[in-house]
Amino acid sequence: MIYLDTSVIAALYWREALSDAIEQLLLNETEVGLSQLVEVERAEYSLTICQSLELPDKLL
């Protein structure tokens, strides 16, 4: 079993430097563990990413 924290989960949602390596690692795993806190932290991370994006003037 491999335990994944929020930083690993985030790399699966948004492409980061280690995303490909994480995907390769998970291909060989049969069991993955997550904390219930991961969902809350992932939501916070998503909000932070979205707030940092600049929207085109047409959408504002």
Mean pLDDT across all residues, rounded? Answer: 82
Q: What structural class is derived from the secondary structure elements?
A: mainly alpha
Name the poorly predicted regions: none
How many beta-strand elements? 2
Which range best describes the helical content: under 10%, 10-25%, 25-40%, 40-55%, 55-70% or over 70%?
55-70%
Shape: flat
Quaternary? single chain
Strand content: 5-15%
Q: Kindly report the spatial arrangement of strands forming the biggest sheet.
A: 1-2
CA-atom Rg in angstroms = 14 Å
Give me the strand/helix succession: EHHEH
Number of helices: 3
- Give the distance, in angstroms, between the N- and C-terminal Cα atoms: 45 Å
The major sheet is characterized as: 2 strands, parallel
Could you please describe the fold and organization of this structure?
The protein contains 3 helices and 2 strands, in the order βααβα. A two-stranded parallel ribbon has the order 1-2. The chain starts with a strand and ends in an 8-residue tail after the last helix. The chain is mainly alpha-helical. It is flat. The mean pLDDT is 82. It has helices at 6-13, 19-27, 37-52, and strands spanning 2-4, 32-34. Helix 1 (6-13) packs across helix 3.
